[in-house]
Amino acid sequence: RLGDGSFLPEGGKPGPVVRDLPAENPSVRLVVLDTQWWLHSASKPAANEATVLEELEKAVATELPVVIVAHHPLVSVGVHGGHFSWQDHLFPLTRLRRGFWLPLPVLGTLYTLLRAHVLPSVQDLQNQVNRHMVGSLSSAMSTGHVLAYAAGHEHNLQVLTADPAAQYMLVSASVRERLTPTWHRGETLFAHQHTGFMVLDFWRTSGQAWLRVVEPVQGSPKGRVVFERRSASTVAGLMGR
User: Fold this and answer.
1) Three-class SS of residue 78?
2) What is the reported pLDDT for 167?
3) Of 223, 207, 125, whose CA–CA distance to 174 is shortest?
4) Do the beta carbons of residue 181 and residue 202 sit within 8 Å?
5) What are phi and psi of 165, to 5 degrees?
6) Contact at 8 Å (CB) between 81 and 184?
7) Whether 147 contacts 219, CB under 8 Å
8) Which pLDDT does position 78 carry in this prediction?
9) What angle do CA 231, 226, 95 make, to 5 degrees?
10) Selected residue with higher pLDDT from 216 and 205
């Protein structure tokens, strides 16, 4: 419905790109960001960070429920958030090649410690450049009422809350077989190392919003809803305001 070959933001620009949907009598504001722009060290479209953040503040200043979509999460209980599994400690080469079960317990633990605390990748939340992006975007988002920030990057499913930047932090990028582990902490509503996707529906007549996490069922054409959260009466109720 968005058209043939619609990619936003265009040309590698950081955004934000704002779309009120549907165009007539909209029910939700969609804000699209290219977070790789913040992390990319090579040549990229020139843009001023302050201007990007100012435009983001304007984008979230609306009475419509705001859903922001980007690639990188602002918070995660997965590998990119510094959470590793026993498999990473004992069989670290399985991260490079599936089925490579060569036990390297000491090297595996050393790898996880170095990546989490000493030399984190720019793609990880612990990295200084990544932290700058997260802090900048979170600060701009917290000036409005963002219902959900939906990201990918991690190969698992996560629903987190209690973040000042958005009511719900969503991670949904588990459409491939090579999944990555998740953990639970205080703000975790749902986390699962499983294939699946998320649905966020809005009812124009009642103002309700309904978040669902759907996972496939082996041997069945239908998926199953493994987590759901809907507002009691209005979108504002789901947002807690």
Assistant:
1) coil
2) 92
3) 223
4) no
5) -80, -30
6) no
7) no
8) 84
9) 125
10) 216
Encode pLDDT of 185-205 as tens digits.
Answer: 888 999 998 999 999 998 877
The predicted model scores a pTM of 0.82
Could you say which DSSP state residue 59 is in?
Answer: H
Dihedral, CA of residue 115, residue 121, residue 127 and residue 128, to nearest 10? 130
Query: Do the Cβ atoms of 188 and 158 come closer than 8 Å?
Result: yes
Six-digit token pair at 184? 């639970």
Residues 6+ apart with CB under 8 A from 219: none
Amino acid making up residue 102: L
Q: At what angle do helices 128-141 and 49-60 cross, to 10 degrees?
A: 40
Question: The tokens of 74 are what?
Answer: 């602002």
Helices (H) and strands (E) in the chain, counts: 6, 10
For residue 22, say if its preceding peptide bond is cis, omega within 30 degrees of 0. yes
Distance, first Cα to last Cα, the chain: 31
Summarised one tens digit per residue, pLDDT across range 123-138 is 898 899 999 999 999 9
Measured between alpha carbons, how far is 103 from 1 in angstroms, rounded to an integer? 49
The residue among 71, 62, 67 whose CA lies nearest residue 30 is 67
128 token code pair: 């200084």
Q: How many CB atoms lie within 10 A of CB 12?
A: 13
For the chain, strand residue ranges (E) read 17-21, 28-32, 66-69, 146-151, 157-160, 168-172, 188-192, 197-202, 209-216, 223-230
Output the six-digit token pair for 38.
């913040």
Residue 231 has, within 13 A of its CA and on its CB side, a CA count of: 21
Kindly report the CA angle at 49 between 46 and 53, in degrees rounded to 5? 130
Classify each residue of 176-186 as buried b or exposed e, where b means 16 or more C-beta atoms within 10 Å of its C-beta.
eeebbbbbeee
